[in-house]
Amino acid sequence: MCKDWTKFEKSFLLIGSIAAILTTFIFNGTFIYIGYTLLYFWAAILLAKGKYFSYIIGIISMFFYAYISYTNAYYGEVIISVCCNLPLMIIGLRNWIKHKDKNNTVYIKDITNNELKMVLISQVVLFVLYYQILKVFNTQNLIISTLSVVASVVSTYLFARRSEYGFIGYVINDIIIIVLWGLPVIRGDVSVIPVLLCPVLLLINDTYGVHNWREIKRRQRRFRKQCKYKNSNANGRIKQGDQQEKFGSHVTGNI
Questions:
Q1: Which helix (H) or strand (E) holds 183?
Q2: Is 101 left (phi over 0), alpha (psi -120 to 50) or beta?
């Protein structure tokens, strides 16, 4: 599974996992917290690698996060997880499985500027709707929660479309979530520090993901060009052979 992993990726996976476990015990976090942090962290690393299995782990971790958010009255995060991200992640999983190479790495897709503009404009309009829904549920830190909804939905949609721009949205969302879970810590609830650790690790991972997906995209473009070149040469040889065969039969007929 890790044969195409770099030393940085392996080290980051190990250090991040150990940090998640240690912070849980130090700050009296629950097994739900450590389960969420580890699963979501592993899913994020696999996402940066472009592996479709990240969706499977991510869907499982989402239910952990929804429960933690509900117990902390972050109802916006619950709505994101269950009503918005879950359907998009199921669609994304199906799309990634259909478009992967022999190493189970997704083929990265270029989306049009018009599609990107439509996604962003739609979320600006829907911001008002998200805000009103979260207000009904007396969501804590209403503005921040609403921004998190927007950033998360945009990012999840872009990844379902196999676009590298999803990482930019995730970087923004990581910063928002750091603020969201940093507020309870500031108020003295140190038990959620393991949850706060997760977006910190994700911020590092998603920043790396921007770079790694660009490298994957370059490799895939080079591979496609090589395939086209080989196919064009093969077709040229076939046509040349056909012409020689026709010429030979013509000469034989004259003789």
A1: helix 166-186
A2: beta
Read off the tokens for 129: 């709707």
Give the amino acid at 196: L
106 beta partners? 100
> What's the rounded Cα separation, in Å, for the pair 137 and 142?
10
Alpha-carbon separation of residue 159 from 44, 124, 223, 246 (angstroms): 12, 19, 22, 52
**Sign (positive or negative) of CA dihedral 23, 27, 28, 33:** negative
Specify the amino acid at residue 219: R
Cα–Cα distances in angstroms (integers) from residue 173 to residues 15, 147, 153, in the given order:
23, 8, 10
Residue whose structure tokens are 């195409």? 4
With beta carbons less than 8 A apart as the criterion, state whether 35 and 64 touch.
yes
Contacts of residue 176, Cβ cutoff 8 Å, sequence gap at least 6: 144, 147, 148, 151
DSSP state letters, 11-25:
HHHHHHHHHHHHHHH
Phi first, then psi, for residue 105 (nearest 5°) are -95, 135
What global pTM score does this model have? 0.79
pLDDT tens sequence across 71-129: 887 777 787 788 888 898 999 999 999 999 888 899 999 889 999 999 989 988 889 98
Tell me the per-residue pLDDT of 22-78, one tens digit each, with 9 for 90 and over: 887 887 777 888 888 889 889 999 999 999 999 999 999 988 888 888 888 777 778
